[in-house]
Specification:
This protein is α+β, with helices and mostly antiparallel strands and 58 residues long. It contains 2 helices and 2 strands; from the N terminus they run ααββ. It has a two-stranded antiparallel ribbon with strand order 1-2.
Length: 58
């Protein structure tokens, strides 16, 4: 499913996967990262249903 542009604009964006992972570790929430198909940066989500785990690089 493609991310709606209005949702993309409202979310915090992270240029790198490492930046997004750091934000996840800093929060106390159960979050996942994903690469947005609109802006090609990383966003965070708490949704789990139907989501695959991303391949971590590095």
């Amino acid at each position: 499913m493609r991310t709606r542009l209005s949702i993309c604009r409202k979310k915090a964006s992270y240029r790198t996967q490492d930046d997004a992972l750091a934000a996840i570790l800093a929060s106390e929430l159960d979050l996942r990262l994903y690469r947005c198909d609109r802006c090609w940066q990383f966003h965070l989500t708490s949704r789990r249903k139907g989501k695959r785990l991303p391949k971590l690089t590095g």
